[in-house]
Every structure is written in structure tokens, then in C-alpha cells.
């Protein structure tokens, strides 16, 4: 199997979209879009994020030892594109703070974490974070599937149209 076939197969798994943020040296906030995020444990409360070895965020996370996961709402595709580097703009991003760490306002969930361990596997580093605080809002999620953004409402409308035929 080649890398394109593998990437295509992995794209068949619908995921939410997150922005990972960290603060370095007390006032320098860095972020990146990621869908490689998962809950690991309820006791203790742990999550994992996966960061590629060539991504600038890797050294920032190693230096800060802390991060936040911001689960994006369906109307926040632009934020995802900004933090993925796919949308170049002069928009200044406003941050809120949770547990002394930067978070994005208006997201579905803000999760504040301290790195408890990291594990290198393949071309990525897995950061395991102890969850210190959470803020949750009730909204529809932004979804990434098959290489594009979509929403639950969009998928429901397609499903209803198919049932009507």
C-alpha cells in the first residue's frame, strides 16, 4: 500500500476539529489545527494529542509543558484554516484564559492540560495531558471527513434527501 492509499483510508474516519494552543515564555501564544486528539482515561482524566516531528508546535509544547485543546464549533472553519496555515490573514486572534492557559472563545469545549508524559512513535510525538479544567458549550461541532469540512446539519440534510428518494 502506498502513502496516498493510507491517507485516503484514514480520511474515511470522520473527526472533530481542534486547535491546540500553548503559551511559551509567559506571553507568546502558539497554536495549530489538529484532529489527532482523543480521550485516554477517566481516572485520572487524561487526553492525548499527536504532533508531527516537522511541526514547529512540537518544540513549543516541549518547552511549555502545557496545552489547551479547543474543540471547534460548526461556524469556526475559518479558525481551523488560520491555525492550519491554510488561510493567511492579518486578523488578530483574541484569546480567553482557562486555568491560566490560552483558549479560543466560542468553541464547543476548552480543555486545559499539563503534559504528564510524551511518547515518540513513527514521525509523531504523542503528548499525554492531565486535564486540569474544562469549559463546555452546547453547539454543533465542526467535522472533517474525506479531506473537507462539514457539519452535522449538512450530513443530516443529505441523509434525509436520500431517504426521500
UniProtKB/TrEMBL annotation:
This is Flavin reductase family protein. Residues 10-151 form the Flavin reductase like domain. Keywords: Oxidoreductase. One of its GO terms (molecular function) is oxidoreductase activity. It holds the Pfam family Flavin_Reduct. The keyword Lipoprotein does not apply. Its EC number is 1.5.1.-. It comes from Lentibacillus salinarum. InterPro entries: Flavin_Rdtase-like_dom, NADH-dep_flavin_reductase, Split_barrel_FMN-bd.
